[in-house]
Amino acid sequence: MARKRSASSARGKQAARNAKPISDRRIDFSDIPESTDEELKRARRVGRPRTGEAKQLIAIRIHPRLLAQLRRLAAQQDKPYQTLIHELLESAAKSAA
C-alpha cells in the first residue's frame, strides 16, 4: 500500500514541485453525477460572509508564551484566539481614548 505523502513533508514538497499541471480537458468527470435542481437550491456559500467591513490582515510578533496564554484564555471562553485578541485590542483602544 502506498503511503500518503503530506505536502508539508520534504518528499511531499518535492512531489509537488515535480507535479505537472494537467488541463481540465484531460480530467475524467464521467463518474461524478450531475447536480439536481433540488441540490442546487439547497447549496450554501462556504467561506467568510461579505459584510462590506472586512478586517484587515496584519502580521505582528507575539512572544510564544503570551500567544499560548491567549489561546488558552480563548479556549476557556470557547472562541477563536484571534477574535479574543481583537476584542482585547478594541477594549484597550477604547479605554485609552
How is the secondary structure organized here?
Elements: H1 10-18, H2 37-42, H3 64-76, H4 81-96
Helix pairs in contact: 3-4
Global morphology:
extended
User: Can you count the beta strands?
Assistant: 0
What's the multimeric state?
Answer: single chain
Largest sheet: none
Give the terminus-to-terminus CA distance: 63 Å
Which spans of ≥5 residues are poorly predicted at pLDDT below 50?
none
Class from helix and strand fractions:
mainly alpha
Share of residues in strands: under 5%
Radius of gyration: 22 Å
Number of helices: 4
Helix content: 40-55%
Order of helices and strands: HHHH
Q: What is the overall pLDDT average?
A: 87
Could you list some keywords that capture this structure?
about 100 residues; mainly alpha; 4 helices
